[in-house]
Design brief:
Layout: E1 20-23, H1 29-38, E2 43-48, E3 63-64, E4 67-68, H2 71-74, E5 78-82, H3 88-99, E6 103-106, H4 112-115, H5 120-126, E7 131-136, H6 151-157, H7 178-200, E8 208-212, H8 213-218, H9 224-231, E9 248-252, E10 258-262, H10 266-275, H11 290-295, H12 297-308, H13 313-322, E11 326-329, H14 333-336, H15 340-344, E12 348-353, E13 357-362, H16 387-394, H17 399-407
Parallel strand pairs: 1-2, 1-6, 2-5, 6-7, 7-8
Antiparallel strand pairs: 3-4, 9-10, 10-11, 12-13
Length: 411
């Protein structure tokens, strides 16, 4: 149940201050779930394998003074403890932690917790109010449940990858682990709904939140299912635009860049025609409404591209802004950090760190008007950095107990 006011870590601020989360698992989907909670004040206790800890600590090829730069962001505002979960004594540490927790997040292969005697039935006997967020490739049930699953396969099987890319070319993947982070967001939403049911609606009981990568990706597939069900349409890759939606594409500029112009509703399309000094295109039968523009998208895109090529990206963006047409540059991260709007919205926070010095980290999203989040600390550099605080101060274990567990490789 919620942590008493006197037991809260005063460094953690936000609407979830007072919620205690046990994070078990590794790599991205599970840790990203609890990152969403940690960003908004939850006390996240990350359980790592003694020794090397989460492989994410070493993930990524780009480093600063030999240390990876992704981990400090993924593990910010989290506390690290260690436990050998393959040993009964390590499993017992989890049972003790669960007594003091609101939420447990895990992304092991389905059945792993049950094998360790830490399945939902076991944990709910210890803490009936515990919310258990379970993240996996295919969910906890169904014929694929026992398969190992990664984001790349989940994106493919959900249909997301099939519609990505260009016609008649191999379907590419996104340059990020989109399936993992999407699932983390859905899992975090489910955890918050379960907390609301337990506390605000008076349900009083915990429950399991079962989040699958395949299903999370499938939720983003928009109208593809009813299009197939009722019209027999299998949506195909459409390159840089969307099928039958125009104008909504990338367009070349004089300085060799591209901008996105999205003027696919009638009033905005008319404003675009005015901005192009081609008002006659607004009433051209080929482009007069959404359906006509969709059917003649290639012809319309060519007209717009010829016009956009006469201005630089910056000139084009300002010109269309002045005409209230949706437009935006295709930013690299180098472009992004210079963008005054992202700066004004505090999307780049600078945190002082003993090792990294001034370290830029992503800001918080979404923004709440009455509660403010903060980066209390970057991801703990040492595996088990908070063993003394959590096992000693929270669970009441003695220094002798901790030294004995460490000597036996349990922590």
């Amino acid at each position: 149940m919620p942590i008493a006011e006197t037991d809260r870590d005063p460094r953690l601020k936000g609407p979830l201050a007072g919620v205690r989360v046990i994070e078990m698992g590794q790599l991205l989907a599970g840790p990203f779930t609890s990152s969403r909670l940690a960003d908004f004040g939850a006390e996240v206790i990350k359980v790592e394998t003694p020794g090397k800890g989460d492989p994410m600590r070493e993930w990524g090829h780009h480093r600063f003074k030999g240390r990876p730069v992704w981990w400090p962001i993924l593990a910010r505002n989290k506390k690290s403890v260690t436990a050998n979960l393959r040993d009964e004594r390590g499993q017992d540490l989890i049972r003790q932690l669960v007594k003091e927790a609101d939420v447990l997040v895990e992304n092991f292969k389905p059945g792993t917790l049950e094998k360790w005697g830490l399945g939902p039935d076991d944990l709910h006997e210890i803490n009936p109010g515990l919310i258990i967020g379970r993240i996996s490739g295919y969910g906890q049930t169904g014929p694929y449940a026992d398969r190992p699953g990664f984001a790349s396969v989940g994106e493919a099987m959900s249909g997301m990858r099939y519609i990505n890319g260009f016609p008649d070319m191999p379907p590419p993947r996104n340059g990020i682990s989109l399936g993992d982070t999407l699932t983390g967001m859905f899992a975090a939403q489910g955890i918050l709904m379960a907390l609301y049911q337990r506390d605000a609606l008076g349900g009083g009981k915990g429950q399991v939140v079962d989040a699958a990568i395949t299903e999370s990706c499938f939720q983003l597939m928009e109208g593809t299912l009813p299009e197939y069900d009722k019209a027999g349409i299998v949506r195909k890759p459409s390159g840089t635009g969307l099928p039958n939606v125009a104008p909504s594409n990338i367009y070349p500029t004089l300085d060799g860049n591209y901008v996105v112009i999205a003027a696919n509703i009638d009033p905005m399309y008319r404003r675009l025609c005015t901005a192009m000094d081609k008002p006659e295109l607004a009433d051209d039968p080929r482009f007069v409404d959404h359906k006509a523009r969709g059917e003649n998208a290639e012809e319309l895109d060519a007209i717009i591209g010829d016009w956009s090529s006469t201005m630089s990206a910056a000139e084009l963006t300002k010109h269309l802004d002045d005409h209230a047409v949706v437009v935006g540059p295709i930013n690299s991260i180098a472009d992004l950090v210079k963008d005054p709007h992202f700066q004004a919205r505090d999307m780049f926070l600078t945190v002082k760190d003993d090792f990294f010095g001034d370290f830029k980290v992503p800001g918080f999203a979404p923004k709440l008007t009455e509660t403010e989040s903060s980066v209390a600390w970057l991801g703990p550099p040492d595996v088990g950095a908070h063993n003394r605080e959590i096992y000693g101060d929270l669970l009441g274990m003695s220094q002798d107990d901790l030294e004995a567990l460490a000597a036996d490789g349990i922590i």
